[in-house]
Amino acid sequence: MSRPIEIGVVGGGASAVCLLDALAQADSVPGSVTIFEPSEELWRGRPFQSDVDVIRVNAPPEEMSVRFGDTAHFERWLVARDLMTGSDADELDSLSGIRFVPRARFGEYLEQSAHAALLRLLERGWRLDLIRERVDSAVPAGNGVTLTTSAGTHVAVDSAVLCVGGGRPADTYSLAGAPGYLPDPYPVSRNLAAIDSDSDVDVIGSGLTGVDVVVALAACGHRGRIRLLSRSGILPCVRQRTAHYTLRQFTPERFRATASRAETITLAELIGIMREELIGAGEDLSSILAEITALERESPGERLRRNIAEIDSSSLALRILQRAVPDTGPDVWPLLPEWEKDDLLRLHYRTMMSLCCPMPPCSATTLLALIDSGQLEVVSGISSIEALASGGFAVAAADGRHRADVVVNGVNVPTHKISAEAEPLVTSLVAAGVAERHPRGGTRVERATSQLMAGGLANPRLYALGDLAAGSLFFTFGIPSLVDRAYDIVSALLNNASTGSPRADAALQTV
Question: How far apart are CA 162 and CA 149, in angstroms?
Answer without folding.
Answer: 13
